[in-house]
Amino acid sequence: YSFIRYIDAIRKKRIRAGQVSLISENDDVIRMMTIHKSKGLEFPVVLVAGLGKRFNTSGGRARMDIHRELGISLSLVDPERKYFKKTLLQTLIRQKDRMTDMEEEIRILYVAFTRAMDKLMLLATVPELEKVRERAESAEAGDILAASSYLELLLPTLKEQPMEVVSHRLEELSPGAGREETDVDRGEIWRLLTGAKPVDVLRMQAEEERKPEGAAAPAEAGGIVESAEGRQPELAEKIRNQLEFQYPHPDAVLRKTKVTVTELNRRALTARAGVEAPETREPLKVPLFEAGAPKLTAAQRGTLMHDFMMRLDFHQARKQLEEEPEEGLLRYLCNRRREMEEAGIFTPEEGEQLNLEGVLRFFRSPLARRAMDSPELHKERAFTLLREENGEDVIVQGIIDCFFLEGEQIVLLDYKTDYLRDPSDVAELAAVGEKYQNQLEVYREALETATGRTVKESYLYLFGADQALRML
């Protein structure tokens, strides 16, 4: 049982566990891995990507440098003149560290190159290839410190090797990428979006304000004042269409694609009543040092009751009823409660709040006897159902408390622990039935879809009234 609780805890907290690899080393697949991960492996074809990425040299910005042979060096700081600069020792230490880093990069590159058995392809992406080539050609032979990427390390050696070098511009690989908008004035777009006037018009307006009253305006002023839409009607229309676009299904944006049966039932109540039904939320827990003796909420008592009913053996209960009608069943319920407390399912304080008398009266009811006599009984079965709601497909998930077979048909049973002021009040019972009508309908649809059998009867068993309310 501890293992089952462990699995439940993993699922509840969504802890991701590692998977066993189902791919062997000899499978004909494409593998993506780091260079370090590939060490010791060989492949027919190897693609080494990312050779244009610049090396990380951020370590050279520290004010203090340490070397195990050269010692410690600090930057020279002049507080009066408010500047600092590297010392000779600091420069030497950084060159030593840089050389060590570059030697490590070359070793990594060696590992990558020696993984290929038949073909090796090197891939690099740089903003400006010509500048990289110029830096590589201007660097002295063997000067690895001048290289800022793997590509700059390799370019000087490619001329001496029988390797094919192919370069592509971004526009060749992705049409339209990297192309500047030469036919569209970006300032024009800004004026269309903000309603601002062209710079020339604003300048002329400022000049007009500075002129004395009665001075004649320049003749070309009227020709300059021209709306942006008049100059670029097609661009203005395109921007307007994009900004004023409205999604044709606005309700689908606000509607969840996966809901619980409880939420679906609340929506149905809202639609029938014409007002927003209150959403049930789990209240925040009071700290133990403030709470004292724990008092369960109505929702917590309902969850506790469902857990207890799920773990009861209906056939064992029937056996106890047959052997000792008066005391056998109650003794069985008390023993099961104690076993669950010892197993840590709930605490003794919570167990004391179980309505054992209500459970006892349930097992003595005609509906429970039918369930106990059934050859096939199911409890707490989770389901997921694709259902249409307001023209949209919605995934509904829920848990069915209990259902059993009678012949080839199904009898559905759902437990409720709602408080009833007057269990004999027909109107109050009818209100409870109406409250859960849609929920039972979803359960029925899920069962018939999953099993292919017909649900002939469905019941709400109300522990607060000790009676079964037939819904179908």
Structural features, described:
This protein is of the alpha/beta class and 472 residues long. The chain has helices spanning 2-13, 88-113, 129-138, 150-158, 170-173, 186-194, 199-210, 221-224, 228-231, 233-243, 250-254, 261-273, 288-291, 298-310, 314-323, 328-342, 348-352, 356-363, 366-373, 426-435, 437-451; strands spanning 43-48, 64-67, 71-74, 76-78, 83-85, 116-122, 258-260, 377-389, 392-406, 409-416, 455-462, 467-470. The two termini are 37 Å apart. 12% of the residues are buried.
| Proportion of beta-strand residues | 15-25%
Number of strands: 12
Structural class: alpha/beta
Taking all Cα atoms into account, the compactness measure Rg is 39 Å
Largest sheet: 6 strands, mixed
Number of helices: 21
Helix coverage percent? 40-55%
Unreliable residue stretches: 217-228
Mean pLDDT: 79
Termini separation comes to 37 Å
Shape: elongated
